[in-house]
Amino acid sequence: MTDSEKLSKLNGQLAIAESQLREKNDVMAKLRTLGDQRAEVFQAHQKSVNSLEEAASAIAKLEGWSSSAMFHSFLGTKQSEWNNRKQRLDLARQQAEHTETAIEDLDHQRRALRDRMVLLKNAEKEYESALQAKIDYLRQFDDHVAGELTDITTQISELSAFEVELRQALHAGEAALDAIQDVGTSLNSAVRWGIYDILGGGMMVTMGKHHRLKVARRHAEYAHRQLQQYQKELADVNKTLRGSMQLGSFATFADYFYDGLFVDCFVQYQITDARRKWVATEEKVESSLAVCRTRLEEVCRGLRQLQSQKQELLENF
């Protein structure tokens, strides 16, 4: 085999390996996108299930001997209220069924992509092998070019690993931010009901305030778990950055719900203070996400430049 034929063969093997690696990266990107979509739909599904349970409970209370049933019976609005609650129940059921179907569809797409990933599982190794074969061949003629290719390949590998860390941190942070915003919505509602309660809203207003605080607690517990996961991902990013990304702790916000608001009595200043801590935590998460996005843009720009340099070296020989 002549040198020209051998080089042509190596180029062909490298082109096939590059194509498979690009496909694997595309499949991974699609899996990430579908994973993000599933997380959003799953959160919506959980909300709809909670709404369904609450709507069913509300109807059961109205049909029983609860204070709500007696209140509406006294006002002569029981049937009207039952119709309203039945409408909310039907809507919650439709939303739960819709989101459940959407989750099943997303899971089907993800399974198909994972099956493809199995076939492409060795794409990196095959590409590295084909690239190394060409580098070894080039070293016979131009050791400088071969050395450049080796250095560029190492840099690409390191930046690609960091890109994965950043994307994982962004995914966890966005999920945490969504959870925190749900807490904020619940607390804003609780603040309004608390004001009505202070102004003498009566038993029904007090019950409404307590219900919204229970919802806020449920959201806070979920947000606490999401924040812990985000902190874990940020620790990996910060390790790569050698401590240059000082983001502090989110623990104060979540601990407040366990140590203060739901242990002692439900008083207005505690709700307001919880909301203040929620706002501070939301701002901190948004700030850290902005840093991650900036870093990701820099990494992606660096990867494109390195890929272009590598491609130029390979094509010009």
List keywords for this structure.
89% helix; 317 residues; 0% strand; mainly alpha; 8 helices; 2 domains
Task: Describe the structure in your own words.
- The chain is built from eight helices and no strands.
- Helix content is about 90%, strand content about 0%.
- It has helices at about 5-65, 65-75, 80-120, 125-140, 145-200, 205-240, 250-260, 270-315.
- It is elongated and about 100 Å long.
- With about 325 residues, it is an all-alpha fold.
- Residues about 240-265 have low confidence and may be disordered.
- Helix 1 (about 5-65) packs antiparallel against helix 4 (about 125-140), helix 5 packs antiparallel against helix 6 (about 205-240) and helix 6 packs antiparallel against helix 7 (about 250-260).
- It has two domains: about 1-120; about 165-300.
- Keywords: Coiled coil.
Mind describing the biggest β-sheet?
A: none
Percent of sequence in beta strands: under 5%
Helicity range: over 70%
Q: Which stretches of 5+ consecutive residues score pLDDT under 50?
A: 241-266
The whole-angstrom Rg is: 28 Å
Give the domain tally.
2
Structural class: mainly alpha
Helix and strand element order: HHHHHHHH
Number of strands: 0
* Average of pLDDT: 77
Task: Count helical runs.
Answer: 8
Oligomerization state? single chain
* Dominant shape: elongated
Distance between the termini: 18 Å
Keywords: Coiled coil
Coiled coil: 7-34, 89-140, 213-247
Summarize the structure.
The protein is mostly helical and 317 residues long. The protein has helices spanning 3-63, 67-75, 78-119, 123-139, 143-198, 203-240, 251-261, 268-315.
